[in-house]
Amino acid sequence: MSVARALDIAYVRLAAPDLAVQARFLKDFGLVDLGLHGDVQLFASANQAPYCYIVELGEPRFIGFGLWVESTEVLETLAAREGGGVEPLGLPGGGSYVRMVDPDGFEIDAVAGQSFKVAAGPENAIGWNENGSHKRVDVFRRTAKGPSHVLRLGHLGLAVTDFKRSERWYKERFGFLTSEEFEAEPGTPLGAFMRADRGGTPTDHHTIVLVASPTAPRLRHVAFEVAGFDDLMAGREHLSQSGYKLHWGVGRHIFGSQIFDYWLDPYGREHEHWTDGDQLTAAVSPRLVSIDAVMGVQWGVERPNRN
């Protein structure tokens, strides 16, 4: 039994040597700049505050991330187990957290009690004329130019020094379920897609991805859900015209099924736009798959490298 159950990913924390440079990229990527709060700069998704991205001043590095758990009582249980304390977040939205350090030194926050402000997002989709069905009649499809509308932070991928050790650490504390475990070769586990356990409530196919890597530990990518396919493509055009570097895309993943587009921030870190991902309940059993399938695509651009 795990100590807590993660409900979803709350925020990601990175450092950048120039906050203005990072802010410009994140705004072009589709996040909302909430400005400086003490010594950190906060960014929110297009239709939900308080924040999903925290940038600290410093040499480029991945610091860690937060996971929402069910209650402050759960935080107290985690704090007792980890030998730490429950602390106030001290940022917009309030709430409390317990900070832990995973086996590779990443700072992982269990978070509860935040309050949210939800604003109007992009207009509802008008449907697609496909498969002989015409849902859009007397209505013209027009996609506005500009950044994508980021709805939420969805997941992140980590390169870790010892996959099984990290998998055990996250499952014991946060109750993650394996969607797929993948092997470098039969009998040699390499990593896994892991999702939150929300019982019968559907959740994303993966919230974290762990991959054993010789260049570990590091952030592999951080991924954000956008409003839809047209929105992803509009954001792609905007980022390209703004001079940012495309890393991988467009394509559709095999595991998770998302339509994806990966971009590099000014310090070389992968940021993914995605839409139309799989939703799973806890009833779905884990599968064992090959790394070739993980790195492959259903359609679109093949991954530029396998690291």
TrEMBL record:
Keywords from the UniProt entry: Metal-binding
Species classification: Bacteria, Pseudomonadati, Pseudomonadota, Alphaproteobacteria, Rhodospirillales
Domain of life: Bacteria
Protein name: Glyoxalase/bleomycin resistance protein/dioxygenase superfamily protein
SUPFAM superfamilies, per database record: Glyoxalase/Bleomycin resistance protein/Dihydroxybiphenyl dioxygenase
Gene3D superfamilies to which the protein is assigned, alphabetical: 2,3-Dihydroxybiphenyl 1,2-Dioxygenase, domain 1
Gene Ontology BP, a term: L-methylmalonyl-CoA metabolic process
Matching PANTHER family: METHYLMALONYL-COA EPIMERASE, METHYLMALONYL-COA EPIMERASE, MITOCHONDRIAL
Organism: Nitrospirillum amazonense
InterPro entries hit by this protein: Glyas_Bleomycin-R_OHBP_Dase (IPR029068), Glyas_Fos-R_dOase_dom (IPR004360), MMCE/EMCE_epimerase (IPR051785), VOC_core (IPR037523)
